[in-house]
């Protein structure tokens, strides 16, 4: 899929306006679906949103970024808190917030052998070096979780 052509198509169909800049995939985006750059007018999009949530949700995110884009170049309020932005976003049925991405972080769980206190950590803990913070008992790794 040529992203810039897709954004031009969405802009023309949903806004009736021309998109004159470029759209780029940005794999470093984690918590957002896209970004608008007023300095040069280009748009960045998170490719994982398309993979995980599908084309319908991705199109709504494209509409969201195009709201920023078109309002900025018309000299109207283009920020999230502006009434112009909220009104246009509702009119074109864009997403207000990006959907939450599923987490891929592995967690390590430890339990104190003395008091039963449980600890959940992203990084492994050296159980020979570290003890329970509550009673100074010995820690035992109970499981690794994908969450």
UniProtKB/TrEMBL annotation:
Its cofactor is Zn(2+). Keywords: Cytoplasm, Metal-binding, Zinc. Residues 1-142 form the SprT-like domain. SMART domains: SprT. The keyword Amino-acid biosynthesis does not apply. It is found in: Cytoplasm. One of its GO terms (biological process) is response to stress. One of its GO terms (cellular component) is cytoplasm. The active site is at 65. GO terms for molecular function: zinc ion binding. It comes from the Bacteria. Zn(2+) binds at residues 64, 68. Binds 1 zinc ion. Belongs to the SprT family. NCBIfam families: PRK04351.1 (NF003339). This is Protein SprT-like.
């Amino acid at each position: 899929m040529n992203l810039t052509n897709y954004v031009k198509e969405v802009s023309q169909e949903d806004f009736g306006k021309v998109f004159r800049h470029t759209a780029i995939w940005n794999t470093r985006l984690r918590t957002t679906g896209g970004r608008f750059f007023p300095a040069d007018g280009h748009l960045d999009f998170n490719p994982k949103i398309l993979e995980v949530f599908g084309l319908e949700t991705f199109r709504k995110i494209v509409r969201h970024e195009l709201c920023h884009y078109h309002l900025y170049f018309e000299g109207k309020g283009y920020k999230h808190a502006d009434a112009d932005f909220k009104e246009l976003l509702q009119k074109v049925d864009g997403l207000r917030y990006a959907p939450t991405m599923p987490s891929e972080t592995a967690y390590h769980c430890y339990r104190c052998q003395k008091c039963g206190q449980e600890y959940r950590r992203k990084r492994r803990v050296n159980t020979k070096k570290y003890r329970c913070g509550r009673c100074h008992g010995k820690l035992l790794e109970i499981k690794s979780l994908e969450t």
